[in-house]
Amino acid sequence: MNPTDLNARLRGSLALLVNSADELRDLDQQLGDGDLGITVSAGSHAVIEALQQLPADATPTDIARATAKAFANANPSTMAALVAGALLAGSRVWADKTDITIADTQAFADAAAASIAQRGKTQLNDKTIYDGLAAVADALKGQTDAATAVDASVAAAADAVERTKPLQSRRGRASWLQERSIGLADPGATALLRFVEAWRDADTAKESAA
């Protein structure tokens, strides 16, 4: 995927992601402080605006860095800081890239997941966004067809949400609920799922509008 298409696909995906803001707010009210819907909505709109202002010769790294900066600046939340850090970590593996392959996307996801694990002091089965991102990174390994890779990513993210529902949350505000968190979907993992779904659906939405 060339930088122009990457920019457009990101903007299209985030335009769809904002439709999940209310769902994410409601989930976060059960397990967190209820601000995830605002974080996603404000961050998405800020990123769309920032990407629209990038020059035509912006590289994939430029796009990732602009996305990180805009998302972080739009929100003072912990989630925004974690996501921005993950995006910056991913941007570094694209430093010499002009077009993005599936393997490049997998490397980005790996770096982003590692950043969240380190910054958030989390690991698998702590019931956080890391569970979903690590699953997506694994699902992308060895993929050679773009459509199949996207479908595998959506399936992996969805499985992470369902797989961690029966677990007790162990990080952030959700951990304060202790046993009461069992049976509830993690808001961060759900937000990641909604993003990869939006990435999948953005292409269809573009074709329908054409």
Account of the protein in words:
- This protein is mainly α.
- The protein has one domain (about 5-205): Serine Threonine Protein Phosphatase 5, Tetratricopeptide repeat (Alpha Horseshoe).
- The protein is built from nine helices and no strands.
- It is globular.
- The model has no long low-confidence stretch (mean pLDDT about 90).
Question: Outline of this structure?
Answer:
This protein is an all-alpha fold. It has a single domain (3-204), classed as Alpha Horseshoe (Serine Threonine Protein Phosphatase 5, Tetratricopeptide repeat). It has helices at residues 3-17, 21-31, 36-52, 60-74, 78-93, 102-119, 129-140, 146-164, 187-209.
Task: List the helices and strands in order.
Answer: HHHHHHHHH
The overall pLDDT, averaged over residues, is 91
Largest sheet: none
User: How helical, in percent, are the residues?
Assistant: 55-70%
Number of helices: 9
How many domains in all?
1
User: Might you state the CATH topology name?
Assistant: Serine Threonine Protein Phosphatase 5, Tetratricopeptide repeat
CATH classification, class level: Mainly Alpha
Computed CA radius of gyration, to the nearest angstrom: 16 Å
* CATH architecture heading: Alpha Horseshoe
Flag low-confidence runs.
none
Give me the secondary-structure category: mainly alpha
